[in-house]
């Protein structure tokens, strides 16, 4: 066998080894299928603020970043410095959110919005490794939305009191 045939055979074997698993995954085996929507409780809206359209209906859209006054003066966007409300909120229908690609999502699907920047956390959330979910191991599960634990406008982790260390088995009496 000449050198060219050996190289071509090695390349072909490498490509099969590299792309065959990807083809199997994209074909969608039942074990790997993840639902696009998750059962979640309603988002924790501030009382009297939602639905947004009750105040914003018919109001002209002001896309200029500025210090908010009136109802939203307590909101300071520290999550995404330089960002503005309409980076996430849909200017045309304030009762919905807007992804970076322009797709409109409901507040109950806000995990898709957060996942645009926090992809690793979204994958962990879907797998049940991040956040809280309730339900039976073999039945329907209810997931908590990101906003149930993280305030989206200022999500810095607040200090928490550490728990005491575990008791050593030798100290148990």
What does this structure look like?
- The protein is mostly helical.
- Helices cover 25% and strands 6% of the residues.
- The protein has 4 helices and 4 strands, in the order ααββααββ.
- The chain has helices at 3-27, 53-56, 110-115, 119-127, and strands spanning 97-98, 104-105, 133-135, 141-143.
- It has a two-stranded antiparallel sheet. It has a two-stranded antiparallel ribbon with strand order 3-4.
- A hairpin with a 5-residue loop joins strand 1 (97-98) and strand 2.
- The longest helix has 25 residues, at 3-27.
- The radius of gyration is 24 Å and the shape is elongated.
Major sheet description:
2 strands, antiparallel
Radius of gyration: 24 Å
Stretches with pLDDT under 50, minimum 5 residues? 10-35
The end-to-end span amounts to: 74 Å
> Into which percentage range does the β-strand content fall?
5-15%
Report the principal-axis shape.
Answer: elongated
Brief rundown of the structure:
With 173 residues, the protein is mainly alpha-helical.
What's the SSE blueprint?
Blueprint lengths: L2 H25 L25 H4 L40 E2 L5 E2 L4 H6 L3 H9 L5 E3 L5 E3 L30
Antiparallel strand pairs: 1-2, 3-4
């Amino acid at each position: 066998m000449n050198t060219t045939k050996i190289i071509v055979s090695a390349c072909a074997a490498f490509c099969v080894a590299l792309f065959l698993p990807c083809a199997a995954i994209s074909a969608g085996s039942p074990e790997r299928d993840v639902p696009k929507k998750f059962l979640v409780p309603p988002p924790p809206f501030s009382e009297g603020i939602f639905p947004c359209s009750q105040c914003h209906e018919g109001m002209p859209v002001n896309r200029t970043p500025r210090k908010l006054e009136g109802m939203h003066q307590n909101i300071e966007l520290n999550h995404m410095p330089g960002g503005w409300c309409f980076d996430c909120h849909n200017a045309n229908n304030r009762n919905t959110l807007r992804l970076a690609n322009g797709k409109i999502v409901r507040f109950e699907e806000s995990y898709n919005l957060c996942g645009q920047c926090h992809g690793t956390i979204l994958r962990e959330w879907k797998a049940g490794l991040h956040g809280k979910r309730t339900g039976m191991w073999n039945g329907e599960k209810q997931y908590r939305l990101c906003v149930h634990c993280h305030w989206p406008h200022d999500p810095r982790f607040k200090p928490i009191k550490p728990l005491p260390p575990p008791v050593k088995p030798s100290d148990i009496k």
